[in-house]
Automatic annotation (TrEMBL):
This is Centrosomal protein of 19 kDa. The keyword Secreted does not apply. It is found in: Cytoplasm, Cytoskeleton, Cilium basal body; Cytoplasm, Cytoskeleton, Microtubule organizing center, Centrosome, Centriole; Cytoplasm, Cytoskeleton, Spindle. InterPro entries: CEP19.
Amino acid sequence: MNLQRIGVRKAPPTLTIEFLHDQKLYHHEIAMLSYLSTLSDALSILNALKRDHIAYIQTIPSSQMVRLIEKLMPIVSLPTADYNKVSETQLAAVKSKMDNVFLKNIVKPGDDNYVYDKQVSMIKLWMLYYA
């Protein structure tokens, strides 16, 4: 088996591996949605992929796989569920994703777009939304 290319499809999240075998071109597609929704970080997803698709993944450098997985991770949105009824592991995964989004968007003192004591006119906001 000779690896040719690796591709990523965003909707639905899919990893496509193109390879030559006996002078014929084949594609192996891996549906990533189940991996992305149950596992929280790229390395654990990579380990699960290596476990499930070892014949296709073994020749691909781990750094390249991690980079491709990280491209797909923001695509999977948080599931809408009653978090009072989910298991502790599912709740921890959702909280981890929420924390990552929060840390990515946080603005701290010293950042370029940080404004101390920002004041907003509610009348202007009301006019913007309801006019």
